[in-house]
Amino acid sequence: ADVFRRAVLRWQENTARPVTLTLLHWGDPAEDRIVRELAEQYEAAHPHVRIVRISTSQFDSKLKTMMAAGTPPDLFYLPPRLLPEMASLGLIRPIDDYVERLRETPEGRAYLDDVYPILLEGFRFDVTTGRTGEGKLYALPKDSTTAVFYVNLDLVEAAGVSLPAPGEGWTWAEFEAAAARITRLNGTAGFERRQVYGANFAIWPDTLRNFVWTFGGEFFGPGGFRDVTLDEPPAQAALEMIRRLRLDDRTVFNATGVAKDGGQEFFTGNVGFHGPVGRWLVPRLKEGTPFRWDVVAVPYLRPEFAASQLFFTGWTMSSATAHPDEAFRLMLYLCGPEGAARQSRLGLAIPPMRSVAESADFLSPPGIPPHNARTFLDALKVARISQNPRQPEWDRIVGDQISASIQLGSQGTLENARAIEAAWLTELASPLRQREWGPVRWPVVIGVTAGVLATAVLVLVLRARAEKLGPLDKAQERAGFAFIFPWLAGFVVLTAGPMVLSLILAFSQWTAMTPVADAKWVGMANYRQLMTTDPTFVQSLRVTLYFVVLSVPVTQVAALGVALLMNLPLRGIAFFRTVYFLPSVISGVALAVLWLQIFHNDYGLLNTVLRPVAGWLGTTPPDWFGVDAARWAIPAFVIMGLWGVGGGMLIYLAGLKGIPRSLYEAATIDGAGPLRRLWNVTLPMLSPLIFYNLVMGIIGSFQVFTQAFVMTGGGPQNATLFYVLSLYRQAFEFHNMGYASAMAWILFVICLLLTLLLFRGSRNLVFYEGLKR
């Protein structure tokens, strides 16, 4: 009844408002409220338009799902990282024709003249050259922010540091001296029980590029995206400065593994400078801090190298929208003065229009402590737009490997830069990128698949008919099929069907951003790339095999040992059985968050216990997920697994309860002690359960994902890049769904072969009571 009622209401709404536009965006509650209020105001002024608004924290996944389902949103946020791929795939509509028409009206010309030109330039993309700033225009800017350094004025004053005057720049030498003076506050009056740091560097590919710019360098040279210049002197000078300040001078906070977060340390008042980051920190600072704060420009080596990374977002239009004219009018309204003023008062970003940026809404918004907001506007004079390859793997390669030199110190900066270049060129030379592939011939594929399935069904039917069954047997057979039909239908539609499609996609190239009908047939290219040119495949397989070899025997021995303890005839043993079993039902994410605290470098329980012992031995506890990750990260995950042995314990305990007492009595009469009874009675009688837990443990260990995803993200340097995590990244971060399907089938084959090998090898090791051989 409720579904019917809502269907009627929806029909009435569609009749009253024939144009429906769907918006997809992200944002915290404050930004969500701004978009909601703007949408409501537009609906009030346009009675024929109904706006369906979707706000999500998982923006990329939601957008990709809607695109692949053929129901893309009419308008959605477009960050620069998505522009190359979405424009190349034709998923977003150029708006140059609408902009030209807009210039024909006085109001339109005034709006376009008011928008910062660099923002319009940032949403231009040439699909032939792959360069941003050229070609067609795909979005209108919603907001932006330049990169700055946030300053703890209390620490700066305590250290006697002089900041550059508003509107002036400063050099990295001056920055280094200031950071060193703040660091020297440690141990002085008022800082006896407090650890402070001169600065914290926010490092990810975009901000790393900002550092390189300020030394006169770039990521790519005149030769295009194949000409990586990280090994040239300007980029090397920037990377060497970061490495030296973090690892040698230790004036810049350097977190490795599970340790204090540098950004959080700034908010607690223990960091002097934090950056380069954008204005998005202001709303959090607005909530209150234990110190006074301000912002200063990003330093530079020389004045001519002054640069600031420009972060920006716009509203774009789906190429599949049924109402492009109405969608552009709504886009123009969302990017207009009112929305910009509301964003400015929130303190979230720089408005896209000069008139609003120069107003009190941005320079002195209500409720935000006074600070030099004009620094953000001054940085626009030296702001730059990143040139990003349309392949998202570039960011992954830089993010995975740069920590080796500037965070862990396991490689020199020059060696690290050359390793990044080699990995990137290998990616570009991979079999999947060597040619343009033709489309999948879906009629042929569907016909062949249907023929194979029909043949299999026919064979089963003929075999069933060959059996001579009486009327009662046939009736029972029909009843049995009737009972299992719901499950059978669900299995075919929800499991077998996707498996067949996955097998087909394993031989194709599909982004999952377009309908599956657009998939391209690549044959064995996915598998050739996996086996020959993808270093992460080999690394993820190595990490996973190491975990399987270490985890399975340790956890099975632990589960059996606990089960033996829980089988003792003691009072209150049921309570302890419950206590040991409960951890195994805790969800993966909650478990990962808990162990993050246990493995914390500074105050974690495990290192707190180990520190006195390690000190007595003249060493220190391991940095589990940091500099010692190559040796200790996988054992750390095994330790985590020990906490959840309750499931295996329960199975072993049930088996122990089923062993006849007479066997133990006979063994005792024959003179067998406890160890002999364990070896000659308990283990043989438990061998079917040991074998079952062994098989399930191996299969489960190959599918480790949640812990690594939450705790490490596969880092550092892919030391915790488990196979399923690598598969997830290919599917849902890089949108290589065909490639991920090939990885899934390789995992299936590995698990299948190992299981068959175990079954074959267990024939003489597993005892099944009552089974005649």
Any overview of this molecule?
With about 775 residues, the chain is an alpha/beta fold. The chain has 35 helices and 16 strands. The strands form 4 sheets. Strands 1, 2, 3, 7, 13 and 14 form a 6-stranded mixed β-sheet that branches. Helix 19 (about 395-400) runs antiparallel to helix 21 (about 415-430). It is globular. The mean pLDDT is about 90.
Q: How would a crystallographer describe the biggest sheet?
A: 6 strands, mixed
Number of separate helices: 35
Helix percent reads: 40-55%
Structural class: alpha/beta
- Specify the overall morphology: globular
Terminal Cα span? 61 Å
Provide mean pLDDT, rounded.
90
Tell me the β content. Answer: 5-15%
Which spans have pLDDT < 50 for at least 5 consecutive residues?
none
Query: What's the total count of β strands?
Result: 16
| Cα radius of gyration in angstroms | 31 Å
Short description:
This protein has 773 residues and is of the alpha/beta class. It is built from 35 helices and 16 strands.
Write the layout of secondary structure elements.
Elements: H1 2-16, E1 19-25, H2 29-45, E2 49-55, H3 59-68, E3 75-78, H4 83-88, H5 96-103, H6 106-114, H7 117-122, E4 124-126, E5 131-132, E6 136-137, E7 139-146, E8 148-152, H8 153-159, H9 172-183, E9 197-201, H10 205-213, H11 233-248, E10 252-253, H12 262-267, E11 271-277, H13 282-286, E12 293-296, E13 308-317, H14 324-334, H15 337-346, H16 354-357, H17 360-363, H18 374-378, E14 383-384, H19 393-401, H20 403-406, H21 413-428, H22 442-466, H23 471-505, E15 508-509, E16 520-521, H24 525-532, H25 535-566, H26 573-581, H27 588-598, H28 605-616, H29 629-642, H30 646-657, H31 661-669, H32 674-701, H33 706-711, H34 723-732, H35 737-761
Parallel strand pairs: 1-2, 1-3, 9-10, 9-11, 13-14
Antiparallel strand pairs: 3-13, 4-5, 4-6, 7-13, 8-11, 8-12, 15-16
Helix pairs in contact: 2-15, 5-6, 10-11, 19-21, 23-35, 25-29, 25-30, 25-32, 25-34, 30-32, 31-32, 32-35, 34-35
